[in-house]
Specification:
Number of helices: 8
Structural class: mainly alpha
Distance between the termini: 76 Å
Radius of gyration: 22 Å
Number of strands: 0
Number of domains: 1
Length: about 160
């Protein structure tokens, strides 16, 4: 009976506070979902690296995929959460994180395309897409930085 009581204590609310699962699992739902989502992004990045490496045999080209997938996704995720981010840049951060994740999805399924090999047009488009996505993340990152209210305030102060 005492064993049954212990399990019910975990699953049900107690008189003065929530049960263990409510307090430690459900109460930390945002953190758990964020950890899961970032884990998926990292696994997707590993998959993108593997596909590009399999298609090209080049470690450098495969590493470039990381600069179009997980790294910018996490960077834009943090940028979205930054307290001083303006609303337009918060939205831009979400769009850019979406582009990073979409890039990893496209790269992740690319080797299932029957004609995808190192000399194919598919591989050329994929590598071109990695370069364009990386450039887009870079330019948007600079714009995000220079349009940050604190950075702009310091720049304006120095110019004045």
């Amino acid at each position: 009976m005492s064993e049954k009581k212990k399990i019910s204590d975990l699953l049900q609310a107690q008189s003065d506070e929530s049960g263990w699962i409510e307090k430690n699992v459900v109460g930390n739902a945002p953190l758990l979902v964020a950890l899961f989502a970032n884990f998926v992004v990292i696994i997707s990045d590993v998959r993108a690296y593997d596909v590009i490496y399999s298609l090209t045999g080049s470690v450098w080209k495969a590493l470039a995929a990381s600069f179009a997938c997980a790294i910018p996704f996490i960077m834009w995720e943090v940028s979205w959460q930054y307290n001083h981010t303006t609303e337009p840049w918060r939205k831009a951060s979400l769009v850019m994180a979406g582009i990073a994740f979409a890039t990893s999805l496209v790269l992740g399924v690319a080797d299932f395309i029957p004609t995808a090999d190192a000399d194919s047009t598919v591989a050329a488009w994929l590598l071109g897409g990695v370069v364009v996505a990386t450039g887009l993340h870079t330019v948007m990152g600079f714009l995000y930085y220079y349009n940050d209210p604190d950075v702009a305030r310091k720049r304006n102060k120095e110019q004045a």
